[in-house]
Amino acid sequence: MKRGISPLLAEVLLIGLAVSLIAGLIAYGNDMFKKRSEETTENFAAANSCNRVEFNVKKLKCDATNLLQSITITNDGESEIDAFRVDSGNQIFYNELDSSLEVFGATSINGNNIPEQTEVKIIPAIKKGQELQYCGNKIQTIKIICP
Question: Which in 3, 20, 89, 135 has the greatest CB count within 10 A?
Answer without folding.
Answer: 135
